[in-house]
Amino acid sequence: MTDERAGAAKGSPREVFWAFLGLGLTAFGGPIAHIGYFRRAFVEKRAWLAETAYADLVALCQFLPGPASSQVGFSIGLLRAGWMGGLAAWCGFTLPSAALMVAFAYLQPRIAGGPLGAAAIHGLKLTAVAIVAQALLGMARSLCPDARRATIAATALAVVVAAPVAVGQIAAIGLGALAALVFCRDAKAVAGAAPAPPAAAFRTRASPWIAAAVIGLFAVLFIPGALVFGQVPQAALFHAFYKSGALVFGGGHVVLPLLRAQTVTTGWVSDNAFLAGYGAAQALPGPLFTFAAYLGAISVAGGGLSGAAIALAAIFLPGLLLVAGILPYWSRLQRMATAQAAMRGAGAAVVGILAVAFYSPVFTSAVGDGADLAIAAIGFVLLTAWKAPPLAVVGFCTASAVALAVAG
């Protein structure tokens, strides 16, 4: 089953769930690594879809906002076993790390109470410094390879500094997309783009009307916002995480400034708890977006298991709705120069947004002296030069911070 129609094969949601659950328990390394795991599991091993179809799925999910690896997994499940297959893929891949993040939400206050626990939490914050610095460097290289896109990134940085709220981030992304329509139309295409495969590989078992309704639902959930739901805490929590998930261009780490604007700036979560959870998320398999479950569990706007469930569903929902709605039309959209240029500008803008978040709160709240700087710098070198897995860097930073506390 290796021909172009492999992606349209019929399977069962149960089969999809168990395949993705195995990955949800073992897929360390972030979205790029996840895409490699998926290729080995579903192109090479199971032959659920052809190589060309998989390449185009990856291109689509890199093009759209949202968590790219989760969108790829959802799409594979959708093509294999329909809408229930897509949901099964998301559950299998997401729930293991989400459950661990909720457990950490309950344990974190107890861990942080003693001196060694506080040192371990500080080590997680230093891990975040190294991880975000690596992400920022990689994104700057790939999304700002020329002077025009570097200028868009710097301008976005200035916009966010001038308006350090969610509106400023949205404005920076919008201005970046508009600027690229003027200055970047002839730039290199979005990374990962591939020729469109035969339409049979993208049979989504949905009519164009259903796809249009899905896109409409995405817009309806995004637009009303606090005007409709602001007075209901759980609904406000849902919208805050939904909006964050809808604006993540360029990789999972970009969600950091968006979520901070929605949770820390609003007083729902403290900066220390926010960064501790972000550091802990690096040690887990599965998607980084499960960080939302931790934030929902400790948020004063929700809290507990219900808050975790609301935040988790809300942050993933916009990306999954977009990929399901646009999947049937991707081959046409892929040929539009205007869409490609706008995405290049949006991608450059998020580099500037992430740079602001890296400085504050990631760096300023974690690095207090030379020893902290040395630990974070070694973690960064381990990631970038030695290609160490994030789990190893979590262990190094945490153990180093605890050792310093014991020695002090």
Structure summary:
The protein is mainly α. It has helices at about 15-25, 30-45, 50-65, 70-110, 115-145, 145-160, 165-185, 210-220, 225-230, 235-245, 255-265, 270-280, 290-300, 305-325, 330-335, 335-365, 370-385, 390-405.
Shape: globular
Output the number of helix runs. 18
Oligomer designation: single chain
Query: How far apart are the first and last residues' alpha carbons, in Å?
Result: 62 Å
**Amount of beta strand:** under 5%
Largest sheet: none
Structural features, described:
The chain is an all-alpha fold. The protein has one domain. 74% of the residues lie in helices and 0% in strands. It is built from 18 helices and no strands. It has helices spanning 13-26, 31-45, 51-63, 68-111, 115-143, 147-162, 166-183, 208-222, 226-229, 233-246, 255-263, 271-281, 291-298, 304-326, 330-333, 337-366, 370-384, 390-407. Helix 4 crosses helix 12 and helix 10 packs antiparallel against helix 11 (255-263). The longest helix is centred in the first third of the chain and has 44 residues, at 68-111. It starts with 12 loop residues before the first helix and ends with a helix.
Topology:
Blueprint: H1 13-26, H2 31-45, H3 51-63, H4 68-111, H5 115-143, H6 147-162, H7 166-183, H8 208-222, H9 226-229, H10 233-246, H11 255-263, H12 271-281, H13 291-298, H14 304-326, H15 330-333, H16 337-366, H17 370-384, H18 390-407
Helix pairs in contact: 1-4, 2-4, 3-4, 4-12, 4-13, 4-14, 5-12, 5-16, 5-17, 5-18, 6-7, 6-16, 7-16, 8-14, 10-11, 10-14, 13-14, 17-18
